[in-house]
Amino acid sequence: MVRFLISRPIAVMMTFTAAVILGLVAYRSMPVSLMPDIPIPEVTVNIAWSGSSARELENTVVRQLRAQVMQVGHLSDIRSETRDGSATINLRFDYGTDVDYAFIEVNEKIDGAMNTMPRDMPRPRVIKASATDIPVFYLNLSLEEGEQQVNGLADENYRFIELSEFAESVIRKRIEQLPEVAMVDISGVLSPQLVIEPDMVKLQNLGLTIEMIEAALADNNINAGTMIIRDGHFRYNIRITSVLRGREDVENILMEAGGRIFRLSEFATVTTVPQKSDGMFASNGRPAITMAVIKQSNARLADMREKIDALVKQFKREYPGMRFEASQDQTQLLDYSIANLKQNLFQGLLLVILVVFLFMRDLKLPLLIGLSLMVSVVISLLFFTLMGLSINIISLAGLILAVGNMMDNSIVVTDNISQYRERGLAVDDACVKGTGEVMIPQLSSMLVNVAVFMPLVFLSGIAGALMYDEALSVIIGLSVSYLVGITFMPVIYRMAYRRTYRFEMALARFRDRLLSAAGGKGKRRITLERFYSSGLDFTFRHKTLCMTVFLLLIPAGLLVLREMEREKMPTLTQTETIATVEWNENIDVTENSCRVTELLGTISQYTLQSNAYIGRQQFLLNRDKVLSPSEARLYIRTASPGDLTQVEKMISKILASDYRKASVAFEPPVNIFEKLFTSSEPPLVAKLTMKNSALTPDIPALLDLNRELNSDPHLATSNRIPLEEHLVIETDMERLLLYDVRYEDLVRVLRTGLRENRVGELHSFTRFVPVVISGKEASLAGIIDNSTVSSADGTPVPVNTLVTLMRSQDLKTITAGREGEYV
After folding, report:
1. pLDDT for position 89
2. pLDDT tens digits for range 521-560
3. C-alpha 126 chain-centroid distance
4. d(Cα 611, Cα 633) in Å, to the nearest integer?
């Protein structure tokens, strides 16, 4: 076979050239990602029921849903977290479970339970976890400094509402038009609402009530639908509508009082303000909007980032008053990892060429071996495409692992051919005899190495998913390098040495004479063979000593293995961190933002970038714990790991001294490594449950136990139980009957005073704007003391005679699993 190949060098070269071209084309079209597309066996159920307390939501909804989804097959773990107004159920399945089927089954269980759920609660959202759903990076959008401070706070809010609408309708859609982008998830937007603030004195003088205003709004905001009529030969759709579309429409609503017609604007003030929000986003201390960019599963990260960079540059030119900034960029980690692997591959190639030159003392051989190596690598990439592999750090690591054996094949073939040439054989005969002599041994060696990695292809679990790409890339690399070594290598050897044999032999003899002269007379040349012979002689003369030393190394190695630390993944140096701050106080988003801004300001000298997710976020694909208004998640990036350590120490010290109730936890930013291995998990978790599952936890007993645990000197950490204080308005039902006051009227007055009386929506052309009837801003005690509610005969009754204000304390988050509720 070898003689047939070397007799047709042009055909062989054309064949391998075509294979290399196909390999380069395949490389350009292969998806590039940080890790293989590993299915994450996890499904998340997000539940939202505004206005409900955590205890009410847990007992009414979450407990029933948890019992339903626990019947899904192959479920390994379940965990739910319930807070005021929202809850999350995380389901973890055995690895290897088809997540698509699990996703369908979870939806079926939820559909079956919806008949028992509260009617006003929207259907829970079910989110299937996927490695491709992890955002590639976040694009932060904010106003420039001069654009934010125009005419005070009101104008700033109006400008940010415009920015939010622009980000959703323009920026987001233009990014999603890129073929590499799957979707853009957005958070931090500010939406408008229309607030009607009636003058209560005028209302009483006119004999009007809040209920009448609500009825007038409902009567003027009707869409009666469409009718179809026939007029001769023509057919028309007739729409009967009376829809409110703007603030002017609301101000011009007509109401009758005392025999006169009044406009709503005559006894109420109508304004457009931002909706009350439980969360916000800040970038480098300024309010901003963040957009999580999620790529298509088969897209190349480099192409996607290149197109988005070009699009952002275009945005900056077209919209000079806006500021764009990328954060949590996983493409940087990918670029660093891929560049590091490519650098290792290039360095290995240079070292091999250098070693071959030193030992074989030939200029052409290292170049031929390097050429065969590059051909083997490029053709291997062609088989990567055929086998459905992507370029990631796992597959590249396997390819680099195979590079050593790729070198061996080419070196063995060329060295054996060179030996036959030195014995006087012609180049053609040396290529045939030298290659044929090593074909079978090399095949045996290749099959032995393949046999080592082949079982990894069939390995189960998460380790099998990771090892699949590496094992397959090693097998492909070994097989391709063997074929290149016995076919391509002898052909290019013959082409390179056919007419230069005599010149090279003379050059070798001249080099040997120079080396001999450099060694000096009477001195023996120190060669590798001499070292090897001397060591072999020493070993045979001291057989007992050598055997004793090697036998002693076996228990020493086992002892070292026993003492070695064990961990899922090696510790990585980080310049980024996520700090989750729980203030453990009943503060609102505004106070939370002020504290976060002050905290980030004290560490600004050490940070390159800082973002703050304050309170509840608006991401659709949010599988993490829902933040409460008194929590914040801070993203911090520094220039060096040392600066990051200093930042973490400073944050912990500031919180311990200035905010004694606060707690903070640091963890790496979310990426595929953290999703698969979760390196931030604590080594030990204690779950406390009640003996009677129907009982709620005893808060004082929990606090006493927690203090006892924290006082234990053997524990390296201090735990806090997040508690939340609630204000409870208890209604005196007997007095309601006595004063003939309807409960609905009392609730309406309280909601109006608390600025929570939502009565409808404006059907704007591009969005729905909620309409809220609101009283003047005041404290809860002031609202109760200064408000009145009308009885059935119109007599005003003070609210403070009908209700009592009390305080209570409960767990901020209700956590539960298979065993029920636990702390």
Report:
1. 92
2. 444 444 566 777 888 888 888 888 989 998 999 999 899 9
3. 17
4. 8
Separation of alpha carbons 349 and 343, rounded Å: 10
8 Å CB contact between 742 and 764? no
182/295 Cα distance (integer angstroms): 5
The token pair at 455 is 């079982």
How far is Cα 11 from Cα 14, in angstroms, rounded to an integer?
Answer: 5
Where in 112-151 does DSSP place strands (E)? 125-128, 137-143
Among 330, 290, 126, residue whose Cα is nearest residue 618: 290
Q: Cα-flanking dihedrals φ and ψ of residue 625, to 5°?
A: -65, 135
- DSSP helix/strand/coil, 409: helix
Q: Tell me which residue has tokens 């998806």.
A: 31
Beta carbons of 726 and 206 less than 8 angstroms apart: no
106 pLDDT tier (thresholds 50, 70, 90) = very high
Tokens 């050897």 belong to: 493
- pLDDT computed for residue 341 by the predictor: 64
Looking up tokens 């999603």 gives 176
- Tell me what the mean pLDDT of segment 809-816 comes to: 84
- DSSP string covering 678-702: -TT--S-------SSTTSPP-HHHH
C-alpha gyration radius of the chain: 37
Position 29 pLDDT exceeds 70: yes
Instruction: Determine the pLDDT at residue 396.
Output: 80
Q: Which residue has the tokens 């209604």?
A: 731
Structure tokens at 276: 């009350």
Residue 336 vs residues 329, 378, 393: alpha-carbon distances, Å: 12, 21, 10
pLDDT at residue 132 above 80?
no
Q: What is the pLDDT of residues 49-74, one digit of tens each?
A: 887 888 888 888 998 999 899 988 88
CA separation for the pair 37, 103 (Å, rounded): 18
pLDDT at position 678 is 57
User: Which of 290-294, 521-525, 698-702, 760-764 ranks highest by mean pLDDT?
Assistant: 290-294
Candidates 57, 262, 303; CA nearest to 180 is 303
User: Can you say how many angstroms the Cα of residue 275 is from the centroid of all Cα atoms in its chain?
Assistant: 28
CA 36 – CA 297 distance, rounded (Å):
10
- For tokens 């909706």, the residue is 275
- Better pLDDT: 580 or 31: 580
Q: What distance in Å separates the CA atoms of residue 440 and residue 178, rounded to the nearest whole number?
A: 52
Burial of 562 (0-12, 13-18, 19+ CB in 10 A): exposed
d(CA 384, CA 400): 14
Question: Who contacts 801 (Cβ-Cβ below 8 Å, separation ≥6)?
Answer: 735, 739
Return the structure tokens found at 414: 């060329």
Q: Are 41 and 94 in contact (CB under 8 A)?
A: yes
Cα separation of 785 and 795, whole Å? 17
Residues ≥6 apart with Cβ < 8 Å to 216: 253, 254, 255, 264
Tens of pLDDT, residues 227-248: 777 777 777 777 666 667 778 8
Among candidates 334, 268, 318, which has minimal Cα distance to 773? 268
Q: What is the pLDDT of residue 548?
A: 92
User: In angstroms, how far is CA 522 from the centroid of its own chain?
Assistant: 71
Q: By the 8 A CB rule, do 378 and 17 touch? A: no
- The answer to whether the CB of 103 falls within 8 A of the CB of 293 is no
Q: Is the pLDDT of residue 18 over 50?
A: yes
H helices of 45-123, in order, are: 54-57, 63-69, 99-113
**pLDDT > 70? residue 472:** yes
Rounded CA separation 224/316 (Å): 46
Q: Which residue has the higher pLDDT, 336 or 435?
A: 435
